[in-house]
Amino acid sequence: MTMQRLLSVITYALTTVVGLVAFLYPFWLPALHQSALQQQAHAGDSALMLTLLVAICLAVLLLEAQNQGITTKAVALLGVLVAINATLRFMEAAIPGPGGFSPIFPLIVLAGYVYGARFGFLLGALTLLVSAIMTGGVGPWLPYQMFTAGWVGLTAPLCRPVVRWLGGPGTHAEVAVLAVFGGWWGLLYGAIMNVWFWPFAVGSAQMYWQPGVGAMETIQRYLVFYAVTSLVWDLARLVGNTLLIAGAGAPVLRVLRRFQQRFAFTYHPVALQEPR
Fold first, then answer.
1. How many Cβ atoms from other residues are within 10 Å of residue 121's Cβ?
2. Which pTM value belongs to this model?
3. How many domains are contained in the chain?
4. What is the DSSP letter of 272?
5. In this structure, is residue 270 part of a structural domain?
6. What's the sign of the alpha-carbon dihedral 25, 30, 33, 35?
7. Packed helices 3-24 and 117-135: angle between N→C axes, nearest 10 degrees
8. Which structural domain, as residue segments, surrounds residue 96?
9. Per-10-residue mean pLDDT for the chain, 276 residues long?
10. How far apart are CA 221 and CA 204, in angstroms?
11. CATH no. for residue 177?
């Protein structure tokens, strides 16, 4: 592994660690002033987290472009895909779909699968940032949405070994694997996002966290909370992701791979001979 690639891996690992700490640090506090208002959760640190995450995305882009991990042509494509996805989310805000359904996740999954984990993370995180600005959805929840959507794209290449085992790219199995993967992330996205406010909420002891509760009991309470409050909502996202990838996955993959082939070239300037 080259030094540049090692530095890139370390950067993404640190970014993931920062995200995990941002979600989980309230559970480590000895005491917590809880509030039933979700808008007050992380109200004091969300601006710092958003600034840090945007700075990380910019630093990653500069680092990848410098090391050719993501070429300038791919950066241009990233901007186009972010704009497309942000527009889809704007349309979703204008005409809401059922439950937690959102049309932005299939493209994050497919692009992350084709172009790699680093591209997928940036597409997911920047999609949520740009779409939040477009729709007025900026709030203390935004950096956590950016982290989680980034993780969707970051993990998409994990489907590649399964696809190769089932017959390789271009087969019906490829689309089926990605559809299942996107469907499960429909549930997982909601389950992770709930954690950003859950430690600050109050209610029945069977469903909400309290300082001093053990790890196993915390998990049990959260599972009850999720099943009661969010499972049906997130099932709409699961079904939506699965159906969109199953129906449109094959043509979108062909388009993404066509761009990948067109971008897989480098310029070799030819020295002009002086006229005699």
1. 28
2. 0.87
3. 1
4. P
5. no
6. positive
7. 50
8. 42-260
9. 66 83 80 48 67 77 63 83 93 85 95 91 92 86 92 94 92 95 96 91 83 87 94 95 96 92 61 57
10. 10
11. 1.10.1760.20
